Amino acid sequence: xxxxxxxAAARLFPDTPGHHGVLPPLLVLLTFVTGLVDAVxxxxxxxxxxxxxxxxxxxxxxALAGEKELSAVASVxxxxxxxxxxxxxxxxxxxxxxxxxxxxxxxAAHGVLVAAALVAGLADAAKxxxxxxxxxxxxxxxxxxxxxxxxxxxxxxxxRTLTGLAADRPGPATVRRLFSLAxxxxxxxxxxxxxxxxxTAAALAPALLLLTAVALAAATTxxxxxxxxx
Length: 230
What we know:
Blueprint lengths: L1 H11 L10 H22 L8 H13 L6 H21 L6 H24 L4 H22 L10 H9 L4 H27 L1 H20 L11
Helix pairs in contact: 1-2, 2-6, 2-8, 2-9, 3-4, 4-6, 5-6, 5-9, 7-8, 8-9
């Protein structure tokens, strides 16, 4: 599996520095997960984002201005939980020397939080509980992605990606940006369809499966100098 991911990374992201290894295709999968999770939070948890904090800041302003369909409490909860997740991820980061191992650890933690949210959803827990769990996971994900700094693969922010597509001449970076945009769009589309027609648990289940697969793929990547089986 890791050999295939390594080949995919080399072909699809040829100008990404080699030390990123299998991370680029895994980050594309995380971008898809972001679309799924934000579809759940916005469509199922009261018009709030758990990954897109720019949107939450704007929603908070709208809610305080008197917009009845938006909740200031939900926006504040999501933002606070996101910061807490990012803070925890930032504290763990210096303790794990290998970037891929750090990535595997925090993606696994994100998966645990999504699993908890899925169970909470099945148990008809309060929406605020799900918001906190999902935002914590997205904060941790953003912390490790920021640390890895793989070009054009932030997994949550598309503004700079779109700007790069428009402002820069076409080149290898265009491929990364297009994959990132496509992953976010298809994740949101799939999450929207699942949330609207089958409910929160159905939309979170594929997110949990993908996070588990990404964490396992990263965790089983050979260490530097260990070699990759052919």
